[in-house]
Amino acid sequence: MNDIVRTETASSTPAFFSDLIEALTARGRAILRGGGKPPAAPADLEEIANALLSRRGEASGVALAATLLSAYREASTLEKQTFFRALVERFGPRVEATERALEAYRQSPGQTTISDLHAASEPRRQELFRRLNLAPGGTAQLVSMRVDLLSFIKQEPDLAIVDSDLMHLLASWFNRGFLSVRPIDWSTPAHILEKIIRYEAVHEIEGWDDLRNRLKPADRRCYGFFHPQLVDEPIIFVEVALTTSVAGSIDDLLDVTRTPTAPQSAQFAIFYSISNTQAGLKGVNFGNFLIKQVVEILKAEHSHLKGYVTLSPMPGFAAWLEAQQSGEEGVASETLLDDPRWLEDAGSRKTVYPYLLQSAARYLVEAKDHLGRPLDPVSRFHLGNGAKLDRICFAADTSPKGIKQSHALMVNYRYDPGEIERNHEAFAESGTIAVNPEIVQLLSGNLPSKGEYSI
Questions:
Q1: Angle formed by the axes of helices 58-74 and 124-132, nearest 10°
Q2: 193 shares its domain with 72
């Protein structure tokens, strides 16, 4: 029990702490047996955490982990926040042990002493999270716990160090090797389909009829990553349309009155929505693996396909455009954009068309965040995966959300299997963006003459 934080109170005596551990272990075993709602916790979250870290027995450890997770679920917001603060202040590296290990390494550098230094300097909270993960449903509860932690960090930035440790473990537990890709279609169990409706983050699914239109027709596909510890809970899913041409409008793609394309006639696979479902796994990048694996699946099933292209939103474009200092040429166009009815008037559409496309090209290629990356998060994601910035689509999403966030514009990113790795390396190493020549023309202030850029 050398690792246990002690205070100068009666509750620190060995006899009391022994009794406390036994009481907590019995409580945890009752939870594991499913014996109904457990009795009130005899100690706070920090005390249970210390008890858990003090145990060496596997059975009692699992029971105590279950106890702590149960107590956490029942805790108030203030109690949870206090617990995370304790993880910062009293569950970090063992300072004295780290200093001894560091001195030993200085005296005798080698694999053994550096391994001892690594073990001594690891924060105690990382071992706590590992032990919590052993409890039934522990992985899912840690993911849920991180949702709380992320909200608390907004008020207390110092808690970010706890998130860093938890994220380190989650990224390991949810690496690609543990994930399986599964098709999701109209025959998938209803409880999973309900989650697809709930989690769709790009284009809202308006009930079962809308979902059926995305999953049942022969020219529609959906795939998700699943993890063995989150049974029937997709981690991320992507929706795909098989089409005869590169789609330039989500309104047309999701039209319930459309005539489905025969899969054998399709020329393109259009990735039109990708949604993460677990807020607690924010920052763990699954999408790049999923898209690339789905491309391989589609190549094997439909070898006649010519291309793999996204139809993607530009969620920050309208806000970025509003923040720019407008030149004289843009004044008339910006005034028209203030009234969303510009889409309904042919003259207004013609006026704003070149202004919007040229501004969007600058936004996608030239606008950067404080780290020098593309400002647009969707662009950052696809370019980082090795896609090419292919085309800007005018009047592509006329939903209220589409008009508000991007003045109805969308983007095609092209995934060419022969160029993905080269594009990825160029972007990762030097920030070089693979761009279609027509986008370059827009950047120079000219409208391309190709048909898809005519209005």
A1: 90
A2: no
Catalytic residue, from 273, 382, 406, 407: name it.
382
Q: Which listed residue (312, 333, 359, 379) is catalytic?
A: 312
Residue 384 lies in a domain: yes
Residue 6 backbone phi and psi in degrees, to 5:
-110, 150
Average pLDDT on 369-381 reads 93
Number of domains in the chain: 3
Same domain assignment for residues 132 and 241: no
Q: Per residue in 93-108, pLDDT tens?
A: 887 877 887 888 888 8
CATH assignment of the domain containing 185: 3.40.630.180
Assess whether 108 carries a catalytic annotation: no
> Is residue 350 packed enough to be buried (19+ CB in 10 Å), middle (13-18) or exposed (0-12)?
exposed
| Those residues with Cβ within 8 angstroms of residue 343's Cβ, 6 or more apart along the chain or in another chain | 349, 395, 398, 403, 408
pLDDT for the residue numbered 26: 61
Which CATH number goes with the domain that contains 37? 1.20.140.90
Annotation says 382 is catalytic: yes
- Identify whether 253 is part of a domain: yes
Burial tier of 111 (Cβ tally within 10 Å: 0-12, 13-18, 19+) = exposed
In a shared domain, residues 264 and 343:
no
- Whether 169 and 38 map to the same domain: the answer is yes
Residue at which a domain ends, from 154, 173, 192: 173
Q: Is the pTM of this model over 0.90?
A: no
Does residue 166 share a domain with residue 182? no
Query: Looking at the structure, do residues 330 and 429 belong to the same domain, yes or no?
Result: yes
The set of residues, in sequence order, having a beta carbon less than 8 Å from that of 417 and lying 6+ positions away, is 295, 299, 308
Where is the domain boundary, 250, 285, 310? Answer: 310
- Say what the pLDDT of residue 12 is: 44
Q: CB of 342 within 8 A of CB of 364?
A: no
